[in-house]
Amino acid sequence: MDKLKDSFVKPRDISGPRSSNRFDYQKDWAILKMMEMYEVEEDFLLVMDYYDDVVVYDSASDPENVSFFQIKTSSKNWTLNSLTKRKPGAEGPSLSILGKMYECKMQFPEHTLSLNFISNYTYNLKLLSGEKSITKKKICLSELEEVTIAEIIRKVIDEHQLKDNPDFVELTFFEVSELLVDNRETYLKGKLSEFIEKQNPDSKYKVSVIYDAIFSEVKVKNNYESDISSFEELAKHKGISREQFKEHIQMFSTDDEEQERWKFINDSLLQENMPFSDRLKIKQAWDDYRVDKMNYANLKLRNTITIISKMIETYKEKQIINLQNDLLKPVYNEYISKESNSFYSEYYIKVIILMEFSK
Question: 179 φ, ψ to 5°?
């Protein structure tokens, strides 16, 4: 079996990413999914709006399996007809929901772990057990009546002009999400609050800031539309790994730690006789930066942080006796020499230097 990351293929249909700004529901669902996977200590790489609405690899570096999630909202029960219906188009009928789901497996036949359809509404399907499907939160395609399964297989064969029966019955699931449409943001903030408290019970945080920051990161990944030609590029531009999600979460529980760091830095600058007016500007920039760095959609700032982080690597190996002369001035001058048209003020840049150096 070929390695999953080496068998990278382009999506058959790239119209999805081109219209990816349409719904926020799937972005909120993706955040819920990451919290769920993080809590069970699974490694993952969650990819937004590529191949499917959400794709989950079982590793960020060397995945073996991939799961696909198509996410749609509705105001009524899903039926066999709505799951297999094809809309007419200029170049022929479009793929049905189930046809689109199976297409994902066609692209990764040896690595597909599951195909999942997620919705806020229930399913009105005939089950072999005789149970009412609208009472179930999750249904495997194999649980349906044999005649229904046969009809689905026939339609998928017709859609993709297959020669053999598609092998996806045991891998396909229909799930009702706990995330409702009308109060999704309120519900998710509540879940985030519970999640952060469980991870860092002694931390101080503002759940609205956490939600806005993580949502902005998911949105950036979701809306990236430039060409991608490898698994590594996919992970970088469209994905969020377990380790990255961990970094995001930890950032929101560093309030006390950053206050202690500021106290130490301020005392050092005071001992170095930095003028009060300069220390005040540093403090104001420090407070601004602490909020700004939580906005992952701010690509300009993220790029600046990356540049400065690389610059200070060698300084972490040196003995810094005087913050101003041994760190701030040389790094700031090096940065300005390379980024003469910097968007940020001198004190803001110096705060980034101090924050990155003192991590």
Answer: -85, 115
* 286 and 224 in a common domain: no
CB atoms within 10 A of CB 20: 20
CB count, 10 Å around CB of 240?
24
The CA-based diameter of the chain, rounded to the nearest angstrom, is 83
Give 239's DSSP letter. E
Residues 50, 229: contact at Cβ < 8 Å? no
Burial (CB count within 10 angstroms: exposed 0-12, middle 13-18, buried 19+), residue 282: buried
Structure tokens at 292: 């700004």
Q: Which residue range forms the structural domain that includes residue 61?
A: 5-250
pTM: 0.76
Structurally, the chain folds into a number of domains equal to: 2
Query: Do residues 237 and 223 lie in contact, with contact meaning Cβ atoms separated by under 8 Å?
Result: no
> What sign for the dihedral angle of Cα 336, 233, 52, 141?
negative
Burial class of residue 270, CB neighbours in 10 A (0-12, 13-18, 19+): exposed
Q: How many Cβ atoms from other residues are within 10 Å of residue 111's Cβ?
A: 20
- Please indicate, yes or no, whether residues 238 and 300 belong to a single structural domain of this protein: no
Rounded distance between C-alpha atoms, residue 118 and residue 200, angstroms:
30
d(CA 39, CA 7): 29
**Residue whose token pair is 């698994």:** 231
In the chain (359 residues long), the average pLDDT of successive 10-residue segments reads 78 52 81 95 93 96 96 95 92 93 95 97 96 96 97 96 95 95 89 86 73 88 92 95 86 66 92 94 90 76 92 91 94 92 91 91
Give 93's DSSP letter.
P
For the chain, report the end-to-end CA distance as a whole number of angstroms.
42
